[in-house]
UniProtKB/TrEMBL annotation:
Residues 106-552 form the Major facilitator superfamily (MFS) profile domain. It comes from [Candida] railenensis. The chain crosses the membrane at residues 110-130, 150-166, 178-195, 201-227, 239-264, 270-289, 346-365, 385-402, 423-446, 452-474, 481-503, 523-544. GO terms for biological process: xenobiotic detoxification by transmembrane export across the plasma membrane. InterPro entries: MFS, MFS_dom, MFS_trans_sf, Tet-R_TetA/multi-R_MdtG-like. Residues 47-86 are annotated as: Disordered. One of its GO terms (cellular component) is plasma membrane. It is found in: Membrane. Keywords: Membrane, Transmembrane, Transmembrane helix. Residues 69-80 have a biased composition (Polar residues). It is a multi-pass membrane protein. One of its GO terms (molecular function) is fluconazole transmembrane transporter activity. This is Multidrug resistance protein 1. Residues 54-63 have a biased composition (Low complexity).
Length: 562
């Protein structure tokens, strides 16, 4: 059964709460039997000080922390001037507060993770879902194959640019995560109608770019949402489970799209996206709760101010916003992902590497028709089913990754042992070595003399290695830059999306110019394989010098997730 807080803190639940004047879906603080803690009452600080400065009383008052993390000494609030300056910082009601998402029961966390995975798949499959119908689009609009690939390119670029706006917004207490998810999902849902009715390639390209832009929050911020409900020991496992949906989404799209493209027509791929994104909007609008802790505490502070009449009650998020002007706040929200990318070598190198992984995956969307239709004479549905090879590789990779990461990371933290981010890197190196193996097998097994299962085995091996490398490096970023997860993941999303969006445009010329009748994608795949071999140096560099690189960082934490 869905817990009441899932409805109360959902998008529509919040709207009903405000429209009713806070009469329905009340919070604990607004119930008649709620007892306000003394520390939030007006004048409590003065009463405490009258008690001869009792240490136990004084400790009930939370004092403001400056930007540098230093705690200011509380002053006597009996003075009206000093009382205005003293701020009582709202926090959770103890370490076991059930309103803290990290204290939710396991079944609620699983349900929430399923919601984020459903949201991710419902938009991510839209990237390549139309690609099985490219030949039909070419005939309808009288365009070249490269022009037919542009809607894929622009969608991917759109969801790379979007997080640079939406992810930092989700870290600000004014917005939070859920409102960003639902509003952008609704716009994505509506955009499927004109996309399905497009009359020319120009309108299709523009609409696909806009749709990708508004699809982006689920792709870039989903990992941060999962981290909201998990303590550090369990975060890598949770993000891995979510990432299965995130990485399988682009492969699931062509599988479904091939059925519509062959039986009904390419436009029905977008009508299907209308149905699936509309279902996601309907369900998540009512049942996806807010999980960003600073946003939840900000809302709690507003409720306590209203109940007690104490204007000194505030939250850390409000303090951070008040220290900046409106223009400074906007610049901070929009500039932070770029700053982290440009000035953090760890982030920059990992972004480049993960961009390579995604680029090759999207480039394969161009190679599949060449191999499976041109060489093995598959029809569209048979070609779509062949994408299952990528998904099988991802699932196998997850099957290896999750128990290993539990043993070397989660279990150690639960036992109180210290763990540094570099614990992830050996598995990243294994994944980095598997990827070129898979690429070489795909390229040279794709021949009329070899059974079609040969190249598909190569795709599965590549996908297994890509999942291992992607997950370990993603968690390396998360543990190193825990305070700025959404911004770090947004910058990563921009890098990989720009590269993955552009590379399919060169896929056809690449394989055509380097291919032969017997090995149509042999040398083209080998070129990509050699690039992957060279890029193995990046995870090796982090294994040898990761601690030194993080020590020079402005944004990195202490390596323990803080």
């Amino acid at each position: 059964m869905v817990h009441r807080r899932f409805i109360r803190d959902s998008f529509w639940g919040r709207l009903a709460y405000h429209l009713s004047g806070h009469k329905i879906l009340k919070h604990n603080e607004e119930e008649p039997d709620y007892v306000v803690p003394e520390k939030y009452l007006v004048g409590y600080g003065a009463q405490a000080n009258e008690g001869k400065g009792s240490s136990s009383d004084t400790s009930s008052i939370s004092t403001e922390k400056g930007a540098n993390g230093e705690t200011n000494t509380p002053v006597d609030p009996s003075s009206s001037t000093e009382e205005k300056s003293e701020q009582i910082i709202v926090d959770w009601d103890g370490p076991d507060d059930p309103e803290n998402p990290q204290n939710w029961p396991l079944y609620q966390k699983i349900f929430f993770a399923f919601e984020i995975a459903f949201l991710t798949v419902s938009v991510y499959m839209g990237s390549a879902i139309y690609t099985p119908g490219i030949e039909e689009i070419r005939a309808d609009f009288d365009i070249s194959r490269i022009e037919g690939t542009l809607p894929l390119t622009l969608f991917v670029i759109g969801y790379g640019i979007g997080p640079m706006v939406f992810s930092p917004m989700s870290e600000n207490v004014i917005f939070g995560r859920t409102s960003i998810y639902i509003v952008t999902l609704f716009i994505f849902f509506i955009l499927q109608i004109p996309t399905a009715l497009s009359k020319n390639i120009a309108s299709l390209c523009v609409l696909r770019f806009i749709a990708g832009f508004f699809a982006s929050p689920a792709l870039a911020t989903g990992g941060a949402s999962i981290a909201d409900v998990l303590s550090m020991p369990f975060m890598p496992v949770g993000i891995a489970v979510w990432s299965i949906a995130a990485v399988c989404g682009p492969s699931l799209g062509p599988l479904i799209g091939s059925v519509f493209a062959q039986l009904i027509g390419w436009r029905w791929t977008f009508w299907f996206m209308l149905i699936i994104s509309g279902s996601s909007f309907l369900v998540l609008g009512f049942f996806l709760p807010e999980t960003h802790q600073d946003t939840l505490l900000h809302r709690k502070a507003k409720r306590l101010r209203a109940i007690t009449g104490n204007p000194n009650i505030t939250s850390n998020g409000e303090i951070a916003n008040k220290k900046m002007t409106r223009n400074e706040l906007i610049i901070d929200i929009l500039w932070r992902p770029f700053e982290i990318t440009i000035f953090e070598p760890v982030v920059l190198l990992i972004n480049v590497y993960i961009a390579l992984i995604y680029s090759i995956m999207y480039l394969w969307f161009e190679a599949f028709p060449i191999v499976l239709v041109g060489t093995y004479h598959f029809n569209l549905i048979e070609m779509g089913v062949s994408y299952v090879g990528i998904m099988i590789g991802i699932i196998i990779g997850a099957g290896f990754y999750i128990p290993i990461i539990y043993r070397i990371f989660t279990k150690k933290l639960l036992n109180g042992e210290g763990v540094v981010p570099e614990v992830f890197i050996p598995m990243a190196i294994v994944g980095a070595c598997l990827m070129p193996v898979g690429i070489f097998i795909f390229g040279w097994a794709a021949s009329p003399d070899v059974h079609w299962i040969g190249p598909l085995i190569g795709t599965a091996i590549f996908a297994m290695g890509a999942f291992l490398a992607f997950q370990t490096l993603f968690n390396y970023l998360g543990m190193s830059f825990y305070r700025y997860l959404a911004s770090v993941y947004a910058s990563n999303d921009l890098f990989r999306s720009l590269c993955a969006g552009a590379l399919p445009l060169v896929g056809d010329p690449l394989f055509e110019n380097l291919g032969s009748e017997k090995f149509p994608v042999g040398w083209g795949s080998s070129l990509l394989g050699f690039i992957c071999v060279g890029m193995i140096a990046i995870p090796v560099l982090f294994y040898l010098n990761g601690v030194k690189l993080r020590a020079r960082s402005k944004y990195a934490g202490d390596g323990s997730g803080h």
